From TrEMBL:
One of its GO terms (cellular component) is plasma membrane. It is a multi-pass membrane protein. This is MFS transporter. It comes from Kribbella antibiotica. Residues 263-457 form the Major facilitator superfamily (MFS) profile domain. The chain crosses the membrane at residues 76-95, 107-126, 132-152, 172-193, 205-227, 248-274, 299-318, 330-347, 353-373, 393-412, 418-437.
């Protein structure tokens, strides 16, 4: 089955529309969210606080004042992401409830995408000491990304029958990693060769941020044109009022009755544990490579690109494994590999590039696959008519618990004074997730949700 052809039972136009939204938003995730914007916003904040960009020779110790609180310039970007994450945990379920009541679901998804793309594009104006503008745009971009993904994930159920969802989800995730890799490679080339291009480093970074916004916005037109709107089904009848009021009522009803779907709830809890482990490993890898293993920035950048490139093939491979061994067992196998990765990370020798790159390749293999299959597996457990709402709980729960892994990592490092035991401690999240996932009876959960049984689970 070719990557360019749609799986059986899936309309080719909608297959491409769905897949290319992963391609579109990954430009923002990699260029802005993962690599460039946090250090750039830090330099802007340091300029505002101290009049210069801090270095190891002349660090900036002056705080910014935010609502009467002193904020370190070096912590600003992380605080903004934290606030956006916590706000998302409350906001996204409302987005999901609204989406399930709308006939023009794709317009809601693309509207959030274009708003986020506009925020990312406007990052080109963040310079000098304008940290307030940078913080606001980062908040808006992250919130719009999460909101669009809630609606996007629910569309998987609309376009793909149960037996095709693993393939569609895995391929879309693969397209996302490929798109993110291409744009990030171009932008890192521009930033690295800024002198040869006649640009200052700051200008090169700002143009790269602009390119991420334009990439996200432009490629979002593909799903807007190719995806079809569908009337809502099995909408829960709640008290009268406008759509916002009805959506709050539907959300309250779902939270009240979610105990009627214990398998769905157990899967969600398992996902929150192992996904927190995944996100934490990714977020701390650069710090671990620099501070514990002593690698320069160029090595870290090369490793990030390697992970993105390998993840394209890893997501496709996991889709094939799921067809042969079943989705649940494939995810569980991936979690075992994740545990081996953090153990290997504990034993990595300092200053040796090849073992570090090998670990990056291993991360790439399981990164996209475990997340893509988790999305398709969860889609099988959602009652009809509440797709976006349940995926909002999926996204909001992820955001509401995503601080646990970094907290454990930070506490273990503080207690031991080393990042090595901190990295291996993250294996606990994969172990707990694996144990909980092994107790999920997928067949029973699919029946409880009233959905059609796929051939393999």
């Amino acid at each position: 089955m070719g990557l360019l052809s749609a799986p059986a039972g899936v309309d080719k136009r909608e297959y491409w529309g769905f897949s290319l939204y992963d391609w579109a938003n990954s430009g923002y995730v990699t260029t802005v969210g993962t690599v460039l914007f946090a250090p750039y916003l830090t330099s802007v904040a340091e300029t505002a606080a101290c009049g210069y960009v801090g270095t190891s020779d002349k660090p900036c110790h002056t705080n910014l004042e935010v609502l009467g609180l002193g904020i370190s310039p070096g912590s600003l970007a992380f605080y903004v992401v934290t606030v956006a994450t916590l706000f998302s945990a409350f906001f996204l379920p409302i987005v999901g409830a609204i989406a399930d009541r709308l006939e023009r679901k794709k317009l809601l998804m693309c509207g959030f995408a274009w708003a986020g793309a506009l925020a990312a594009s406007c990052m080109v104006f963040v310079e000098g000491g304008s940290w307030q503008l940078g913080a606001l745009l980062l908040f808006i971009g992250n919130l719009c990304l999460g909101s669009s993904l809630v609606v996007y994930d629910s569309i998987l159920i609309d376009i793909a029958p149960p037996d095709a969802r693993d393939d569609v989800s895995s391929r879309a995730w693969a397209f996302g990693y490929l798109g993110g890799f291409i744009l990030l490679a171009i932008n890192l080339g521009v930033v690295t060769a800024h002198d040869a291009l006649g640009l200052s480093q700051g200008t090169a970074v700002r143009l790269s941020l602009l390119s991420a916004g334009l990439w996200w916005g432009a490629f979002t037109f593909v799903p807007f044109v190719r995806l079809r709107n569908r009337p809502p089904t099995n909408v829960v009848q709640v008290r009268s009022g406008n759509i916002i009021r009805q959506s709050f009522g539907q959300l309250a009803a779902t939270l009240t009755h979610i105990r009627a779907y214990p398998v769905t709830l157990l899967f969600l809890v398992a996902y929150l544990f192992f996904n927190d482990g995944i996100q934490t490993v990714i977020s701390v890898s650069s710090t671990y490579g620099e501070k514990q293993l002593g690698f320069e920035t160029q090595v870290l950048i090369m490793t990030i690109l390697l992970v993105q490139f390998i993840a394209f093939f890893g997501a496709l491979a996991f889709g094939r494994f799921a067809r042969r061994f079943g989705t649940q067992r494939t995810i569980m196998g991936g979690l075992v590999v994740w545990m081996l990765i953090v153990i290997a990370g504990f034993m990595l020798p300092a200053g040796q590039i090849l073992p570090f790159l090998a670990m990056g390749a291993a991360i790439g293999i399981v990164l996209g696959g475990t997340q893509a299959l988790s999305r398709s597996a969860f889609s099988q457990l959602i009652p009809k008519g509440r797709e976006a709402e349940y995926f909002s709980l999926y996204q909001a729960g992820e955001r509401g618990t995503s601080w646990l892994g970094t907290l454990v990592f930070g506490l273990v490092h503080q207690i031991t004074g080393s990042y090595r035991p901190a990295i291996v401690a993250l294996g606990l999240f994969f172990l707990v997730g694996l144990i909980l996932l092994s107790r999920v009876d997928m067949r029973r959960g699919i029946d409880e949700a009233g959905n059609t049984q796929p051939t393999m689970v």
